[in-house]
Amino acid sequence: MVWASGWRLASAVSNAGGLGLLGAGSMYPEVLREHIQKCKEATNRPFGVNVPMLYPDLQEIMDIIIKEGVKIVFTSAGNPKTWTSLLKQHGITVVHVVSSVKFALKAQAAGVDAVVAEGFEAGGHNGRDETTTLVLIPAVKEQLEIPLIAAGGIATGEQMLAAMILGADGVQVGSRFVATPEASSHDSFKEVVVGAKEGDTQLTLKELAPVRLIKNEFYHQVVQAYQKGASLEELKVLLGRGRAKKGMFEGDLIEGELEIGQVSALIHDIQPASMVVQELITDFKKAKRKVAQSEW
User: Fold this and answer.
1) Are residues 133 and 276 in the same domain?
2) Residue 197: what are its φ and ψ, rounded to 5°?
3) In this structure, are 90 and 226 located in the same domain?
4) Could you give the number of structural domains in the chain?
5) Closest Cα partner for 125 from 229, 48, 54, 183?
6) Is position 110 within any domain?
């Protein structure tokens, strides 16, 4: 949710009854501080911060989170041992995002309060093993003792119910909230998400950090680089800096990096975040009743 989940989206989700998360991955420390403060002004309900640990300035970011009194932190893309103890010492609930059973158990051993198991369908940076949510959730549930949150390919109430039947205690939804007015991503990118069809995304760049992208001109440049046998350094040069910002925040649909999940094929309109949350819950309850009444 880099370049998408600022204070407007996070507070709107929280106000609607979900748990809004600020995406710290696209924020400099002082920008994160501003978004936390504005989020506190915009909602009196819980919200959290997602911190990808592959970015710099982590010490400063964690100091700001602690000083500003954030109560929930989702960590990802790194070793959960690094920050979990410090955060929990300050009364912060820590959730870690993983893509495999192995990493889920490591997160549990590190003392996190819950785990997000994210399947291969998810947008943005992803696991290298390509385990789908349908397989990952029951596999993690089988061995995990702490709460499990499912992510990856979830944008409807029916999918939410399916994830919970598989063993999840809750779900994390990303891509669906990109297509909301409150998301800070560019309107042109939102329109691309709404217009996406099945097969329009692909996981690539595994040698650097696996990422699921819309198949635009930049994606095809990546494909051509692979066909020519590009080295790791050549891939780094091609990726350059600021590709994600260029695509998702500035709206460069040609040369920008457009990260979104497979479930974009099921997103057909731009709706306020409150309506998305309401629709998820309504359709979840409807699907639950349907299953209960079924003679399967």
Assistant:
1) yes
2) -115, 170
3) no
4) 2
5) 54
6) yes
Q: Which residues pair with 213 in a beta bridge?
A: 202, 259
Q: Measured between alpha carbons, how far is 85 from 116 in angstroms, rounded to an integer? A: 18
The pLDDT score that the predictor gives to residue 58 is 93
Alpha-carbon radius of gyration of the chain: 18
Residue recorded with tokens 């996070």: 10
Q: Which domain holds residue 197?
A: 187-263
Residue 93 pairs with which residues in a beta bridge? 72
- pTM for this one? 0.93
For the chain (296 residues), the mean pLDDT of every run of 10, in chain order, is 92 98 93 97 97 88 96 94 95 96 96 96 84 96 97 96 97 97 97 96 87 94 93 89 90 94 96 98 95 79
If asked whether residues 74 and 152 sit together in one domain, one would say yes
Residues 136 and 275 grouped into a single domain: yes
pLDDT of residue 295: 63
CA distance 128 to 118: 12
Same domain? For 213 and 130 the reply is no
